[in-house]
Specification:
By secondary structure, the chain is an alpha+beta fold. The protein contains 19 helices and 18 strands.
Length: 520
Amino acid sequence: MKKRIFSIIMVLTLIAAMFTGCSQDKKTEGKEKQVSAEGKTLNGVDISEPVTLKMYLLGERTPDFDKVYAEVNKILKEKVNATVEVDFLSWSEHDKKYSLLFSGGEDFDLIFTAAGWGHYENTVAMGGFYALTKDFLNTYAPDILKAVPEVAWNQAAIDGSIYMVPNYQNEFGNNVVGLRGDLLAKYGYSDITSFDQLIQFFGDVASKESGISPLGTQAGGLYYQYLLDKGMDTVSGTSTKELFLYNTLNPGDKTITYALDWDGFTEYCKLAKELFDKGYWSADSLATTEERQDGFLNGTAASLIWNIGTTETYVDQANKEHPDWKCQIYDTSPSVAKAVNAYINNGMAINAASKNKERAMMVLNEFYTNPDIQDLTSLGIEGTHWKTEDNNQYSVLDESNYGVDANCNWGWVNMNIKRTEFKANPDDVDKKVQAIKDSWNASIKPEHIYDGFTFNNANVSSQAAAIETVLDQYYTPLILGMAGDVDKAVAELRKQLEDAGIQAVYDEIKKQAETYSAGK
């Protein structure tokens, strides 16, 4: 009996030991896994703590955007133990809301930026962006340094410091015009080859069509075509719209011209008033919440003015939805040599107040150099929105819910890994776009010293702020033809700008431009 009891005790002891051992093994295994997670590193940097970064882009969220970025986040989670949440500033609101993100203390980490039009210089002046040192980049984004050329970093420098990662693509900066082909044919036009001819066609639409105007609410776009036709360009970073100009076609001319002293400005304002009075655009243009493409796509505008890639996107969409429109793209100044955009025309920056600057830099490293993320953010989900073709090309399967390069992925474009579109049977728009690009590449304008110059308004920030207020009230209505008597309106604008301190800004621009030129 004792032996039997002893045997039972021994068996129970062994069983208990087995369970204890298993329990200890599981505890040990858990600890080992926990230690492994806690010790996760990348390039010697501890990334064991998962983070969610908030990122701002410009434009509108497309229907499949969240699905695409769920795939992006899977890659980021694996690579750098981080994910991104994205908010958008629409085209109609970003001018007013961008700076408020910083002045209001918004908690975010990454944001799209661009020299001149995308708030780069202003935000640097207000201390909104984190300065990217060589050591910081080497530590947290070494691949970016290999991808982005030295000239791009030089362009991004303000007072010796860099505050954005520029994109890397050769992009032409001038706009083209998308037009309704059915209306062109209706009024006897086989082509549009000049600015004057465009205005003539617009006159036919304005006087003879009902329910459709030449420009809808996109009146401001016409001024850029006018400047292009005159060979003029704006000084980047002035935060004063188009008030300071230079002759971009003449590298030997280093004059910076105050627009109100240029005969072409008053000439355009008088043209704008004449066109507005004839109904070329809507009175809603001053307060519109429409996106630039809306009128063109919904049939209330006969034209769309934008860069060639975006214009092609919406012309294709219009033709798909309304094949009878037969929309086409036109260069209204074909004899004017075209410029390649500075790389800082699109880029990404880190909020100076971000609590996760290091991880934000790691995320940018993936955005710029990971081919899978380039594919996702540019094209969408493979098999749903696009499919792979040979020679790093793609073909579109469904562009309606995400779109090609339609989601502000422009800040991290890397032409070394970005796919190009395969078109087995190019249509008339494809052929026209290629012909325009070929002509531009065959006649790239000589580089002007001011093409890479960016004005920093930190020394005249109070005057610049006052000028912005004046421009909203007096300048914008003037170039939209809505200010009444042009000579009186120009005189009043001049007086208001003088009172706001325009001379101090002009002097500072010329001083910085001279210093910049001397250093090149």
